[in-house]
């Protein structure tokens, strides 16, 4: 009779995180997780916007939020 230990010693490929790219101007982020960027979920797709595009379009971004969110 044999048994398996189930300790998870299998080689599983892991995806390496990539720098983000602005969904509007296509500028790549300098940092892996830029804290000044804006994240938006549109039609079920997560999009990131650089700080420049976020500032330029702040009114439009805020206009989509429910008043309970701000």
UniProtKB/TrEMBL annotation:
Top-rank lineage group of the source organism: Bacteria
Protein name from the UniProt record: Uncharacterized protein
Origin species: Streptomyces shenzhenensis
Organism lineage string: Bacteria, Bacillati, Actinomycetota, Actinomycetes, Kitasatosporales
